[in-house]
Write a structure and sequence with these properties.
Length: 301
């Protein structure tokens, strides 16, 4: 039995949205099926509608069913593989590629590509998210880890929980941060008005820690190296926007539109983790995409 506690910041969320955020190891489709199968209780009462809206403060219990076979299917989509061994695959995800299927999308994802290139992946994530241990936003490029076995998946997931996985990002932000270094500790929650967004402007939410260092300053922008101690949805984008310096091109979080930049200037550059089998520390880097480099060079002009 898994138990989750809703807070005031979760008011208005659909039940399946809330569960997907709290139990990221399971696909949203699987969680919806468990709701329909009466495996979810809200304040002790069975709820059978995944669309049920939370009021905030509920105690939610989930009785996970045995995982069924994978339902995601293979598609011939190119993959840039940075690293692989018997436990782990690291890919360089391009901007525009969704990591896994979800509402309104069943194909054309990273998972579909992975299933075409590899015979088996971890089953822990469920039928629509085989192998997926963590995610990158659709508009973010860079290195992403994939688990080949269930044991590797659990090991990597535990490392993420302990915050022993080191993730380094590069971001160009709008404006000039006052300090050359800084840290942001603000909880992140679903925006109660704009449900596609997250916010760090509420008193409640999930704790989130972001550190940044200015690498270079331009006339109206700055290049940052960013480290995150947590992996909340849209964390870097939300925190930097709250600081008053949204990621360049990220119009969802207040940046001005950039005609020659059709995505946020945000790249997952490097990741460090312990090998699930040997314990050896592994470091993997993903080169900065050409379109980001070209846009940066125009700033230096």
């Amino acid at each position: 039995m898994r138990e989750c506690q809703a807070t005031a910041a979760d008011a208005g969320l659909r039940l399946d949205q809330f569960l997907a955020e709290k139990l990221p190891e399971y696909s949203r489709a699987r969680l919806q099926s468990w709701v329909e199968e009466a495996r979810v209780r809200v304040n002790g009462a069975v709820v059978r509608k995944a669309s049920t809206k939370l009021k905030g403060g509920e105690r939610i219990e989930v009785d996970p069913a045995e995982l069924k076979p994978l339902r995601a299917f293979a598609e011939d989509i190119p993959l840039d593989i940075l690293y692989e061994d018997d436990d782990v695959i690291a890919v360089n995800k391009p901007a525009g590629l969704v990591v896994h299927a979800g509402a309104g999308r069943a194909s054309g994802t990273l998972v579909n590509a992975l299933l075409n290139h590899f015979q088996t992946l971890s089953h822990v994530g469920g039928d629509l998210r085989p192998g997926i241990v963590h995610r990158l936003d659709k508009g973010t490029s860079g290195v992403l880890l994939v688990a080949r076995t269930d044991a590797a998946h659990r090991s990597l997931a535990a490392q993420f929980v302990r915050h022993s996985v080191e993730k380094t990002y590069l971001a160009i932000v709008q404006g000039q941060p006052k300090d050359d270094r800084g840290a942001i500790d603000l909880p992140i929650a679903r925006d109660p008005v704009h449900r596609t967004k997250m916010t760090a402007r509420l008193s409640a939410g999930r704790n989130a820690h972001t550190e940044y260092r200015v690498l270079r300053r331009y006339a109206k922008f700055a290049l940052l190296e960013v480290h995150i101690g947590t992996g909340r949805t849209h964390q870097i984008r939300v925190h930097l926007s709250t600081l008053g310096h949204p990621v360049a091109g990220d119009t969802l979080y207040g940046a001005a539109a950039q005609p020659e930049l059709n995505r946020p200037w945000l790249h997952a550059l490097r990741i460090r983790f312990d090998s699930p089998s040997t314990g050896k520390r592994i470091m993997i880097e993903a080169p900065v995409p050409a379109e980001l480099t070209a846009w940066q060079e125009r700033l230096a002009g």
